[in-house]
C-alpha cells in the first residue's frame, strides 16, 4: 500500500513544536541538575538567534553533547527523567532501534516518519539528542573515518532504505545490507566510537549523520563554550560563538530561504496530546 504523506496545518505544526518544547525543557532540567553540558544546535540554534524560538516551518528540535556528556545524560535518564511524560531511546536501550544517536520522546503521542511505520519500537513525538565524537586531525585519516561512518550509517539505514528507496537496485542492496546482524553492526559502531575518542581532536561530528562540508566535521570549541539563549520564552544553553557556527553551517543565516526551500519531514501519521491534531493514513 502506498504511503500517504500528511501535510501539517499551522495549528498542528505549532502543537508539535510546543510538545517538543516540553522535551527541551526536560533535557535542560536534567542537565542543570546533573551538571551536564549541552547545546541546542542546527535549526534550533538558528531559530533561537533569528526568531527567538522555532523557525516557523520547522518540525524538529536538536540538542548536541560531546560524547562524555552524552553518556552521562543517558545514565541520568535512568534516574532523573520524568517517566510519566517522557522516554529515552537509543540503540543500547531499545530493541530494533537503528540510529546512532538518542531520541527523547513524549508519551501518549505518535509521530511516524514516512517509510518508518514498520520500525519495531514506540514512535512518539521526539527531539534528537546527538553525541559528538572526535574526527581525526589528519585529513587522509579523516576521509577514511568519514567513509567508515558512511558505511555503518547506510547499513543502519537499510531497515528503511529496503522499502523506501525509489531505485529497485538500491532496494536490493539495502536488503542485502539488512541481513548483517544488528549485534555485529553495533559492535562495529561501538569500536568506531572508541577509536574516535582516543584523542582530543580539533573537530567533532555526529558519527551517524552526514556532514555536508569539506572538512567532515565541526569545531570542538563550539560545543565546549555555551551561553544562555531565549527560545520560546525559555532559557536554553546554546553555542556561544553562534555567528561563526551558524555562518559555517548555513551561510547567510539571517536571510530567510525561499519558500520552496523551507523543507519539512514527510509524516504519515501524527497524534498529539488531548486528541487534537490527529491524522493517519486513513484520513
From TrEMBL:
Domain spans labelled LicD/FKTN/FKRP nucleotidyltransferase: 31-247
Domain of life where this protein originates: Bacteria
GO biological process: glycoprotein metabolic process
InterPro entries assigned to the protein according to its UniProt record, in alphabetical order: LicD/FKTN/FKRP_NTP_transf, LPS_cholinephosphotransferase
Residues annotated as transmembrane: none
PANTHER family, alphabetized: LIPOPOLYSACCHARIDE CHOLINEPHOSPHOTRANSFERASE LICD (PTHR43404:SF2)
Protein's name according to its UniProt entry: LicD/FKTN/FKRP nucleotidyltransferase domain-containing protein
Record organism: Paenibacillus agaridevorans
Amino acid at each position: 500500500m502506498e504511503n500517504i504523506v500528511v501535510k501539517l496545518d499551522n495549528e498542528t505544526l505549532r502543537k508539535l513544536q510546543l510538545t517538543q518544547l516540553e522535551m527541551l525543557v526536560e533535557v535542560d532540567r536534567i542537565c542543570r541538575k546533573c551538571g551536564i553540558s549541552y547545546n541546542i544546535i542546527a535549526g534550533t540554534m538558528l531559530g533561537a538567534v533569528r526568531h527567538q524560538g522555532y523557525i516557523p516551518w520547522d518540525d524538529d528540535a536538536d540538542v548536541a553533547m560531546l560524547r562524555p556528556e552524552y553518556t552521562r545524560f543517558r545514565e541520568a535518564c535512568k534516574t532523573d527523567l520524568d517517566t510519566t511524560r517522557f522516554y529515552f531511546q537509543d540503540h543500547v536501550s531499545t530493541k530494533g532501534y537503528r540510529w546512532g544517536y538518542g531520541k527523547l520522546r513524549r508519551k501518549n503521542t505518535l509521530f511516524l516518519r514516512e517509510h518508518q511505520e514498520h520500525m519495531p519500537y514506540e514512535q512518539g513525538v521526539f527531539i534528537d539528542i546527538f553525541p559528538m565524537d572526535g574526527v581525526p586531525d589528519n585529513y587522509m585519516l579523516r576521509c577514511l573515518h568519514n567513509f567508515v561512518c558512511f558505511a555503518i550509517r547506510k547499513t543502519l539505514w537499510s531497515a528503511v532504505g529496503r522499502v523506501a528507496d525509489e531505485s529497485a537496485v538500491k532496494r536490493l542492496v539495502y536488503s542485502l545490507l539488512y541481513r548483517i546482524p544488528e549485534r555485529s553492526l553495533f559492535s562495529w559502531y561501538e569500536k568506531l566510537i572508541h577509536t574516535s575518542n582516543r584523542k582530543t581532536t580539533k573537530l567533532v561530528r555526529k558519527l551517524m549523520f552526514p556532514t555536508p562540508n569539506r572538512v567532515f566535521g565541526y569545531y570542538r570549541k563550539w560545543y565546549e563554550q555555551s551561553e544562555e539563549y531565549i527560545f520560546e520564552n525559555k532559557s536554553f544553553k546554546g553555542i556561544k560563538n553562534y555567528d561563526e557556527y551558524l555562518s559555517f553551517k548555513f551561510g547567510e543565516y539571517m536571510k530567510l530561504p525561499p519558500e520552496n526551500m523551507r523543507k519539512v519531514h514527510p509524516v504519515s501519521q501524527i497524534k498529539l496530546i488531548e486528541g487534537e491534531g490527529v491524522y493517519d493514513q486513513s484520513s
